[in-house]
Here is the input.
Amino acid sequence: MIAAVGQSISRDNSLGPLELAEVAAREALGAAAGLGAAIDTLLVVNMLSRRAGRAPASELATRLGLAPLAAATTTVGGNMPQWLVTRAATEIRAGRSAATLVVGGESLRTARLRPRGEELHAAPSGIGAPDPVLGADRRDLTDEERAAGLSLPLFVYPLFESVLASRAGRDPRA
Here is the structure.
């Protein structure tokens, strides 16, 4: 069961990935009274933005006042958010977790819009050890995918849509 959700958007591009994750997490925690006290696991989707730190889950847990708890981050992969939700549900159902907070945050646009050398956002506190990393550590793309220019979802998803349209008997160029 999903107890609460939260979302954060920084239209002025002033927030970094940890700040965006924190705002969204606080919104979710505020939507379900007492939820914060039940959380024993915090899972953070890998943040591609610079300066997310070596321990984004532990940093976020500290910011939210949820520490100590089990905290981990993931390898890179578009499947990771759903994989974490499935993992959390499995752990809760098995009785190994009471409640899990799954959070993601990204600020690549913010990073691109800032002048070179300007601080993006508050630096992580410098929590010692890196978070454990969940997921398969594999190359993001094959050599063939790179050669075909299939490096971003922007280029890959239309390919999927074309295949689905063709299989459904529609002209993919329409």
Observations:
- The chain has two domains: 17-137, 139-174.
- The chain is about 40% helix and 10% strand.
- Strands lie at 41-44, 70-74, 100-103, 133-134.
- The first helix runs from residue 17 to 31.
